[in-house]
Design brief:
about 0% strand, binds zinc ion, globular, single chain
Length: about 100
């Protein structure tokens, strides 16, 4: 497994953890896991977000992208609907049966 594969798996694990952490915040009003574990996952995510956001800013400033033909919120809603209807038996999937 390459360093890239390891980094992507780490990011996916942190992102899935954030979904659970966020649900804990919204539903329980408290964390189910130790705050140090949650903080580590947030740091993994923040590092990735910072890197991607830097390219968002750089590429918006450039001219290589045509104007977006659709509302980004609508595109996100379409992607979300696909996740909502997804079912599988994967133990890592939030929509597992
Ligand atoms: Zn799945």
């Amino acid at each position: 497994m390459s360093d890239l594969d390891t980094a992507l798996d780490s990011l996916q694990c942190a992102a899935t953890g954030l979904v659970t952490d966020f649900a804990d915040v919204l539903v329980r009003g408290c964390l189910k896991e130790h705050p140090d574990l949650v903080a580590y996952r947030l740091a993994v995510l923040s590092g990735a977000i910072d890197k991607v956001h830097a390219l968002v800013l750089a590429e918006r400033a450039g001219s290589q992208w045509a104007p977006l033909p659709a509302d980004p919120a609508a595109a996100h809603a379409t992607d979300t609907a696909q996740v909502t209807h997804h079912r599988c038996t994967c133990p890592f999937c939030l929509h597992g049966d």
